[in-house]
Amino acid sequence: MSQENVELLRKGIDAWNRRQVDVWLGYAAPDVEWMPAGPAAVERTIYRGHDEVRAGVMAAWETWDVFECHESEARDLGDSTLWLGHVKMRGGASGVELDQEFAIHSTARDGQITAVHTYLSWREGLKAVGLEE
Fold first, then answer.
1. Maximum Cα–Cα distance for the chain, whole Å?
2. CB-based contact 31:51 (threshold 8 Å)
3. Among 56, 35, 2, CA closest to 128
């Protein structure tokens, strides 16, 4: 089941990159929790449930013209997945561009994502799951 969780997260990231919030939410449990990192946390630090997550995602996309995640590796942790890669962002109004390390830790239950926590560095993501290197 855990490799299925890796693929589930990858599908969610693909939907994010295509700006398809309803597709992304289709992979998420109704009580999903999203904890965005840094520049994605536009209105709050934790969003719970489809309605809050949809509003938070839409706010992030309104702020950032470009907001794409590019994978370097994904680690199967059993009931969770640690995704390591880079995020590329460009501010809509400011034009500010970011290209930096990014980590996503997701948990899944019964084929649905239940939590997504993001980090602005691989080190933070690894530390959060007890794999500090």
1. 43
2. no
3. 35
Let me know: does 44 contact 127? Beta carbons within 8 Å.
no
pLDDT in tens, 49-88: 999 999 999 988 888 899 999 999 999 999 899 999 999 9
CB atoms within 10 A of CB 11: 15
For the chain, the domains span: 2-128
Task: Please give the structure tokens belonging to residue 80.
Answer: 């969770």
Torsions phi, psi for 10 (to 5 deg): -60, -40
Residues across the chain:
133
Q: Are 21 and 32 in contact (CB under 8 A)?
A: no
In angstroms, what CA-CA distances link 22 with 12, 16, 53? 10, 10, 10
Question: What are the residues facing 104 on neighbouring strands?
Answer: 83, 118
Give DSSP secondary structure letters for 38-71. Answer: GGG-SS-S-EEHHHHHHHHHHHHHHHEEEEEEEE
CB atoms within 10 A of CB 26: 14
pLDDT at 32 over 60: yes
- In CATH, the number for domain 2-128 is 3.10.450.50
